[in-house]
Amino acid sequence: MAIVDLTHMVSSGMQVFPGDPEVEITGALSISADGAQVARLHLGSHSGTHVDAPCHSIEGGRTTSEVGLEELTGEALVLHLPHLEADAEIAWHHLAGQVPGTVPRIVLLATGWDRLFGTGEYLSHPVLSPAAAEELWSRGMRVLAVDTLNPDRTLQPGQEFSLQVHELVLGSDGLIVENVRGAAALPSRCRVGFFPLHLAAADGAPVRAVAWV
């Protein structure tokens, strides 16, 4: 089986959620001066491809310390949603034809929007309707992964702030993985793994995301 990397490379100045800490990678030590090269990293817990722990938006929810790797590895149902327009809402009727009676714990929405990562257009990504998220949850989803910045609408000027899908999934003790790269090329069923940095009691963490195909 081939391993497919589903991770955006972490680099200085990369796109982050509006208002999050900027990513900066600078030199801390050098071979010439210190005998070894070491980089200094400055980034937020939700930089690049990352996992949201329940406490990200739920008071008292689990932290990264309480999330097991087994929750983030396994068979995934990849739902292909090409040709969506900016700000489109993904309703249940968009998904129903691809969803069996029950689903594996990991569901990955492949919109192809990751092709716009790093541009202003990336902020106007499609969003999952709360009703569709609730239906997926009722069928067995426990990890929602998306190839966009957010399964909810990313706040734009004049829009009302809402995290209904976060509240549903994280509020039910599930997990969300955001900014997956290259999901549109995956088959409808494959094995995936999202491996977060082992951060103590954090609200999220960058992951190395892979698929086996």
TrEMBL record:
PANTHER family: CYCLASE-LIKE PROTEIN 2 (PTHR31118), KYNURENINE FORMAMIDASE (PTHR31118:SF32)
InterPro entries, per database record: KFase/CYL, KFase_sf
Source domain of life: Bacteria
Coiled-coil ranges (or none): none
Stated name of the protein: Cyclase family protein
Transmembrane feature ranges: none
Phylogenetic lineage: Bacteria, Bacillati, Actinomycetota, Actinomycetes, Micrococcales
Pfam families in the cross-refs: Cyclase (PF04199)
SUPFAM superfamilies according to UniProt: Putative cyclase
Organism name: Arthrobacter koreensis
